[in-house]
Write a structure and sequence with these properties.
eleven-stranded mixed beta sheet; alpha/beta; Amidase signature (AS) enzymes; two-stranded antiparallel sheet; about 550 residues
């Protein structure tokens, strides 16, 4: 009897020493879905919001002990040192002893846990969390050397879930890739870890980087559900395909995030979530270990709350990768210049289509006050009629190559046609909005070799869209809005940088986008830093104080 009492006491002692985590119960979302059926944007008339493939409760199980012992009081104490702060400032607080790398990591885990387990605030931003993240943060504290304010060391970063990060799966948001545990880290993840950066987790995205279903909601995936915009849940689009990256950075779920872009997939969610996003020159950032759409146009890039953090992350991930035929040895950008002088004398071309935008008009006034010249330009009329064909041709060959060389052994499919057939077995579950694009890609018979000349012609036309007015007016860069010129920039291999420039009357964010010739990332960061200095526009969403 005494033994039983001791065992019972020990059982309850064990239960009370680590309070249970919140439990997420899948709820009836029919009322929410119905309320969106009259949304003016057709693709925001959702068919589902919650994921039917993943259990939200499992996200936080590896951190049950830490989350139970991390108090609300500690969270509130740390807020001023972390929320909306840039990397140099956070590194300074760590150097001064105000917080540790472990405390920084726990703060973000607690914030994610608090909001993502609440029916009124969850954003479906994440697909997985790194189970080793707390141990890795503690290791950073033990191995701390001279604190470099411009280093990614000890900084928790979130990664779009089409980029390989061990030990987590790389799903690309798709049910068929649920158990895709890659053989190695992607090249750019190795670079982050070499610097001592911490990979906090993997982010939701528009499934297959929004090259899967026609007219479907951005930010939707089988694995992650429907990503929601923190500035207006079910009111504003998240942008895509790096939807989770934009949403997570906006909600202060990490210091920064990695996204990827083929045409607009960094610029769009950056604009929709009021964050800085860089689409680099093709080849400046390695694509090895990233689920592809198009080897001709794909790139990864940084997304952050401010220019300096985006530049620090960019400097970390660049580097020559022999496994990527487009890779080149890109140069680091200077992140310590006086921003007040960076716009003086710069000549910027404003695309005429955007001169009537009210937020752009305010931005132009600020640019001129800082010493820039702004000239309205009329680019040549060009239609990239074979753009979709290029993506189809590339994906039909590039995705099988990723599966062959990078995917985990658990992946059984080998081609796009195999994935289409997998989804057909339960289309309501795996592809509720259909898979029209994948079906078209699977039927593609044109080879890359056969399409090469047409691709070169399109690239030349896209380059002339910018180069002709830039030469005529001796411009340093071109101005656009969000991702509205992304297709031309993609085909021209021109880098583009989005920077917050304000909010519409109903509160929807919008970015100004700077576009420059290939390999001119340093110039873009100068322009972005100068603009951010004279027109600091980003505000944290009210839903996430």
């Amino acid at each position: 009897m005494n033994v039983i009492r001791i065992l019972v006491f020990a059982f309850f002692l064990g239960c009370t020493s680590t309070p249970p985590l919140k439990v997420w119960n899948t709820y009836d979302e029919s009322a929410e879905l119905q309320s969106n059926q009259d949304h003016p944007i057709q693709r925001m008339r959702y068919k589902r919001i919650q994921s039917q493939h993943t259990d939200r409760n499992q996200l936080f199980q590896p951190f049950a002990k830490e989350l139970a012992s991390f108090t609300t009081e500690e969270y509130e104490r740390l807020k001023p040192f972390i929320l909306e702060q840039n990397i140099p400032t956070i590194q300074g607080h760590i150097r001064q002893g105000d917080l540790t790398y472990e405390a920084l990591t726990l703060f973000y885990l607690y914030r994610i846990y608090t909001h993502e387990m609440d029916r009124d605030t969850y954003l479906n931003a994440l697909i997985s969390l790194n189970p080793n993240i707390v141990k890795e943060a503690r290791l950073c504290d033990r191995n701390r050397k001279e604190n470099n304010p411009y280093s990614l060391f000890g900084m928790p970063i979130l990664i779009k879930d089409n980029i390989d990060v061990t030990p987590m799966a790389t799903t690309a948001g798709a049910a068929v890739f649920k158990d895709n545990y890659p053989k190695n880290d992607a090249f750019i993840i190795k670079k982050i870890r070499q610097e001592g950066g911490l990979i906090l987790g993997k982010l939701n995205l528009s499934e297959w980087a929004y090259y899967f279903c026609q007219g479907c909601p951005v930010g939707n995936s089988a694995q992650g559900g429907q990503t929601l915009n923190p500035y207006g849940r079910r009111q504003f689009e998240t942008g895509g395909s790096s939807s989770g990256s934009g949403v997570a950075v906006a909600a202060n779920y990490a210091v920064a995030a990695l996204g990827s872009e083929t045409s607009g997939s960094i610029l769009s969610p950056s604009g929709k979530n009021s964050v800085v996003g860089l689409k680099p020159t093709i080849g400046a950032v390695s694509r090895s270990g990233i689920v592809p759409i198009s080897s001709s146009l794909d790139t990864a890039g940084p997304m952050a709350k401010n220019i300096i953090d985006a530049a620090i992350l960019y400097n970390t991930i660049i580097g020559l990768d022999s496994a990527d035929s487009s890779s080149f040895d890109s140069q680091s950008v200077n992140i310590a210049e006086d921003p007040s002088q960076l716009l003086k004398g710069k000549r910027l071309g404003l695309l005429r289509a955007f001169e009537g935008d009210s937020l752009m008009q305010i931005a132009i006034t600020k640019l001129k006050e800082a010493g820039a010249e702004v000239i309205t330009i009329d680019p040549p009329t060009i239609t990239l009629t074979s753009f979709r064909t290029l993506l189809d041709v590339d994906m039909a060959e590039d995705l099988p190559l990723y599966i062959q060389y990078y995917a985990g052994d658990q992946v059984q499919v080998k081609t796009v046609a195999d994935i289409v057939n997998f989804n057909r077995k339960d289309s309501l579950l795996h592809a509720p909005y259909g898979q029209e694009i994948f079906e078209r890609v699977a039927a593609t018979t044109i080879t890359k070799g056969e399409f090469e000349e047409e691709k070169r012609n399109m690239m030349a036309q896209a380059t002339s869209y910018f180069s002709i007015p830039m030469k005529e007016h001796q411009l340093d860069a071109v101005l656009s809005i969000d991702n509205r010129s992304a297709g031309f920039a993609a085909m021209a291999h021109y880098p583009a940088l989005g920077v917050p420039m304000g909010y519409s009357t109903d509160g929807e964010p919008q970015n100004i986008t700077f576009i420059a010739p290939s390999k001119q990332e340093a110039l873009l960061f100068e322009l972005g830093a100068g603009f951010e200095n004279v027109h600091p526009s980003r505000k944290a969403p009210n839903l996430f104080p």
